[in-house]
Amino acid sequence: MAIFAKTTDMQRKDFIKTSFLGLASLPFLSFVRKEIEYYDVVIIGAGLSGLTAARILKNAGKRVLVYEAQDRVGGRTWSKQMGENEFIDIGGQWIGKGHDRMYKLVQEAGLTTFPTFTDGKNILRVTGTNNLYKSDIPPLGLFALLSTKKVISKLDRKASEVLLETPWLSKNAAEMDQQSLGSWIDQTISNKRARVFIRRAAEGELCRSVDTISLLQVLASAKATGSFSQAEKVEDGALRDRILGGAQGVSNFLYSQLRDSVKLNCPVSFVHQIEDLILVGNNQFSVKTKKLVVTAPFPTVKNIQFTPELPVEKQVLIDTMEMGTVIKCHAVYAKPFWRDKGLSGTSTCMDEVVELTVDNSIPGSEKGIITSLIHAERAKELLKLSEGERKYILLKAYAELFGEEALNPIVYHDYSFSNNPWIGGAYSGYFTNGIFSKYGEHISKPCGNIHWAGTETSTLFKGFMEGAVLSGERVAKEILRIS
Predict the structure, then answer these.
(1) Which of 97, 206, 286, 479 makes a 20 to 30 Å CA pair with 224?
(2) What average pLDDT is seen over the chain?
(3) Is 364 exposed, middle or buried (0-12, 13-18, 19+ CB in 10 A)?
(4) What is the extent of the structural domain holding 216?
(5) pTM
(6) Does some domain include residue 130?
(7) Contact 441, 166 (CB under 8 A)
(8) Could you report how far apart the first and last alpha carbons of the chain are, in Å?
């Protein structure tokens, strides 16, 4: 009692604070005796959202530090140079209609865009037969085509009725969040070929089985993009342009302006928040901050220990989000031989493991590149195989589409972000059915001094680079407004 009688109120508070943190997590004890550096804002993740927020905050006079677990910046944008003026985009690659921030950043970075190649005839492969066509309308057959157009129009109409900023408050939101898109498709489309086509198209956008994702989340994503059909369009659509040199060039440009504020190869393992102070870091490095921004995809946030625990609503969202699964495969050839046959390189396969291909060749290069994307359950099955086994399957599929020349690429490369522990998948993440309508309002809601960004938190262009940039702008303004 005598000891406490001589202790001031401030000393008691300091004792309680230190004791609480020390008991809450042992890593803190190794830093108690060290002088820990202070930042106004710490950001977890050096993708487009994190770098965008960091630049805005730094330009506003804030002392900022960005933690990045990987040895590079860019997040789900990742470009690999294949030679002089030659590259492949391992991650995101397209920008298009409405992506105003990305076009502005491309210009600011001194980069240029080029249009997605569409010259020539496309292929619709059904039951082992290649059907050639030139327009945007695949030769599904009259009844299947009419049914497809009707259901896309119906989806777009339903999406237009969803509230953009608060889709969970839309009419019949809870009901639509309990129904899977797959069950809605089966109930709505009687024509088998149209049903298969819509299922494949939807899984190509969502990277998830349509039987595992709610109708409400699909409609909200369509509304955020403009429409269901807008996300799949090339000319005047979301897939209109690519960035010369690779999409990661935008992140590299932002990094060049923030280099001293970005710490690579530094994953965050703990976040201790108490009163107005946050201690964030890992067993080797930690800092203090007033504000923390988390841009990492929700499923990867499970790797971080939060003290105190996050609010129940936020934790439910983190625990129930599943990232999409997609494999992106590139085959580089001495020349784009399919063009000599009058083909565009674009194909859609109705009943094979390869769902679609595009001509990803680079203007000015003699080489040709065919890129394919395999999504959802088909991607999960392929990922169980070795790279050599995947290569055999995919090149055989390319040969059936474009000829025997496709069997002998100069370079073959495939990758899935599902194998990356710091990202967990692509293009985006979706919640277990019933969660979005109940907890959606908490997706971007701050938890005390912890703020949230990333393309999954964007109300516009979720899953696109544009959505990531918009979320970075939003969270930076959020912090500046209240600080």
Answers:
(1) 479
(2) 92
(3) exposed
(4) 143-232
(5) 0.91
(6) no
(7) yes
(8) 41
